């Protein structure tokens, strides 16, 4: 693939301001960031630090005020609505906080949705959606409706929907924000698995324990990157993190600041 | 996303909110049913008029007092009197006239043993009237010229009036009270087809002398009915009658006659014109209700879009193009109005089985096609604003919406 030489995400001096004049707020004050293929990145920060704004821009849901954003080597800031919709559809898989499934619509139909928007034929769609559901361990729930599933299961469906188009980037915004620790562990396990099989995952969270799953940590304060470093982890029990939460130690080692 | 999928999706969304969708559909249903049914009523009445023109034949003329134009034109001598009837009957002056029937008419309260009914047309006339208007006596007999001369209080009832007064009893020979006088029923008229908006069977016909004496008083006649010897002699009969009247009433100004002569077909044409105007008017009212139904669709789609803002945001994040969302909500609006349209057609077909205002509605197939087409157009038109609002939402705004 020719895109291999480009970083998946390349951000240079990204600035986003809201409002103007006296009431102007600088949500992002010059962010530089490069994310390479296969990376597992956590973006942390307290609310108001600009992480949601950053995620909206990375997800092509919003446009920066200034600076450059190259997704897969392509500058998306010049794209119109239609092109942005295509980018979101083909290159980015979103996992939002809760309630991101379409209600009263079967799990399978929910997972098929991005493929339907991409214009794929129904039979192909169904096959790929079932495969994605199997990946997240919900192959047997295809015909259920979202409200028949637990929160963790719903979130895993959302992950299946994010990966079904084989996007360049999976963008998870507080995917465990509304889940109990058991469900969180389920969802994080699925994201870990996706990263192990080569997907680029960007995880946005304010929870250190969740961030521990990633391999690299970015911390935002007042719209600037203050920390950017790899996360070291103890070799055992990677997948149990959410449940047993033993790893506050390595985290504080990893973030000396 | 194919059209079939879009429609399936829309139906699912419509069904998800049964009550709300049902009420919206009801608005369109009423509009469409009203349009089809009222056009059917108009069509039915036009057909009835047509039949009556054929049934009545075109050999009769009606002479009535002209509506006074301004105070100066009010002519006392315009009143129709029995003298004129005698003059018109003169064979030498009017060789093409077969019969002349004076008519006094009005609504009258008639009662029989406690059952009271207002007969919409209580007619005092001569026996020739029945032949002139193609009335047939189904049972019993008509009154005779002798009854007229002798002021006999006898009456012939129309089928509708008889049914209302007597229900199951046999009316022949019974005495009914008209006003304060008692009349003996001697005959019953056969059933007659609907003319326009009045029931032609709700009549009672009595000798003019008895009617004037006991009921209407000796005022002027309401009409004089002239029957020509043949349909193709109507023109001749008309000019002969005109000449007699001009002479009798001393008419000098031909442009301002105190009376008017109309042929039966002219009367019916006038009536069918009235019916058509009425139909257009009713159709316009029905179309208004369709418009209100359409606004209902806009309203409910606005609610739907607001309610599903987050869903729209998610769809956008998943890469739904503007067009797809526009199509989705437009389809939903169209499905709503089309369901309303189809149910409206069913309601109209059911409604047309009943007689409305004495008219048997006849549904025009083209009106069904038109109503369905219009209901689709309404869905597209009234759904377009909410749909474009949904499609135009910015993804982050939609996602943030709670």
Automatic annotation (TrEMBL), chain B:
Keywords: Cell membrane, Membrane, Transmembrane, Transmembrane helix. It holds the Pfam family MacB_PCD. It comes from the Bacteria. Residues 21-243 form the MacB-like periplasmic core domain. This is FtsX-like permease family protein. The chain crosses the membrane at residues 21-42, 280-305, 325-351, 363-385. InterPro entries: ABC3_permease_C, MacB_PCD, Macrolide_Exporter_MacB. Belongs to the ABC-4 integral membrane protein family. It is a multi-pass membrane protein. The lineage of its organism: Bacteria, Bacillati, Actinomycetota, Actinomycetes, Micromonosporales. Residues 284-393 form the ABC3 transporter permease C-terminal domain. It is found in: Cell membrane.
């Amino acid at each position: 693939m020719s895109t291999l030489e480009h970083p998946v995400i390349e951000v240079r001096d990204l600035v986003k301001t809201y409002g103007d004049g006296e009431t102007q707020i600088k949500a992002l004050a010059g962010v530089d960031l490069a994310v390479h293929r296969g990376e597992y990145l956590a973006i942390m920060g307290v609310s108001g630090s600009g992480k949601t704004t950053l995620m909206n821009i990375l997800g092509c849901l919003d446009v920066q005020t200034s600076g450059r954003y190259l997704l897969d080597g392509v500058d998306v800031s010049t794209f119109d609505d239609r092109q942005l919709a295509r980018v979101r559809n083909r290159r980015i898989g979103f996992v939002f906080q809760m309630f991101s499934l379409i209600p009263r619509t079967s799990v399978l139909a929910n997972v098929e949705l991005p493929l339907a928007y991409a214009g794929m034929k129904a039979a192909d769609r169904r096959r790929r959606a079932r495969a994605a559901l199997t990946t997240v361990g919900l192959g047997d729930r295809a015909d259920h409706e979202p409200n028949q599933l637990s929160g963790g299961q719903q979130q895993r469906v959302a992950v299946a929907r994010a990966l079904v188009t084989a996007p360049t980037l999976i963008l998870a915004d507080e995917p465990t924000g509304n889940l109990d620790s058991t469900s969180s562990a389920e969802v994080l396990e699925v994201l870990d698995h996706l990263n192990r099989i080569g997907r680029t995952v960007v995880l946005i969270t304010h929870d250190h324990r969740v961030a521990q799953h990633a391999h690299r940590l970015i911390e935002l304060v007042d719209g600037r990157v203050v920390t950017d470093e790899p996360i070291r982890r103890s070799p055992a029990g990677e997948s149990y993190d959410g449940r047993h939460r033993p790893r506050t130690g390595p985290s504080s080692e990893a973030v000396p600041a | 996303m194919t059209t079939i999928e879009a429609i399936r999706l829309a139906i699912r969304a419509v069904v998800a909110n049964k009550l709300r969708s049902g009420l919206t559909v009801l608005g369109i249903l009423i509009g469409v049913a009203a349009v089809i049914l009222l056009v059917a009523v108009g069509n039915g009445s036009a057909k009835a008029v047509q039949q009556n023109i054929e049934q009545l034949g075109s050999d009769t003329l009606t002479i009535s007092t002209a509506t006074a134009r301004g105070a100066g034109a009010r002519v006392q001598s315009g009143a129709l009197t029995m003298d004129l009837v005698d003059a018109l009957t003169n064979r030498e002056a009017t060789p093409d006239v077969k019969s002349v029937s004076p008519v006094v008419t009005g609504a009258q309260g008639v009662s029989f043993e406690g059952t009271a009914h207002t007969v919409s047309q209580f007619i005092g006339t001569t026996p020739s009237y029945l032949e002139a208007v193609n009335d047939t006596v189904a049972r019993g007999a008509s009154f005779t010229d002798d009854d007229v001369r002798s002021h006999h209080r006898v009456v012939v009832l129309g089928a509708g009036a008889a049914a209302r007064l007597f229900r199951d009893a046999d009316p022949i020979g019974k005495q009914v009270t008209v006003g304060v006088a008692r009349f003996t029923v001697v005959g019953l008229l056969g059933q007659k087809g609907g003319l326009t908006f009045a029931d032609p069977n709700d009549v009672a016909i009595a000798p003019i002398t008895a009617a004037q004496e006991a009921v209407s008083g000796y005022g002027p006649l309401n009409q004089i009915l002239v029957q020509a010897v043949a349909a193709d002699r109507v023109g001749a009969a008309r000019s002969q009658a005109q000449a007699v009247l001009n002479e009798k009433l001393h008419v000098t100004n031909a442009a301002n006659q105190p009376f008017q002569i109309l042929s039966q077909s002219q009367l019916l044409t006038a009536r069918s014109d009235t019916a058509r105007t009425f139909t257009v008017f009713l159709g316009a009212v029905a179309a208004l209700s369709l418009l209100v139904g359409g606004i209902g669709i806009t309203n409910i789609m606005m609610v739907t879009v607001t309610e599903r803002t987050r869903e729209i945001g998610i769809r956008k994040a998943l890469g739904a193009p503007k067009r797809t969302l526009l199509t989705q909500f437009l389809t939903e609006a169209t499905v709503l109005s089309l369901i309303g349209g189809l149910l409206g057609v069913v309601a109209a077909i059911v409604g047309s089985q009943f007689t409305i205002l004495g008219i048997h509605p006849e549904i025009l197939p083209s009106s069904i096609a038109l109503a369905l087409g219009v209901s689709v157009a309404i869905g597209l038109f009234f759904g377009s604003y909410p749909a474009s609002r949904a499609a135009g939402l910015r993804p982050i705004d939609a996602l943030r919406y709670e």
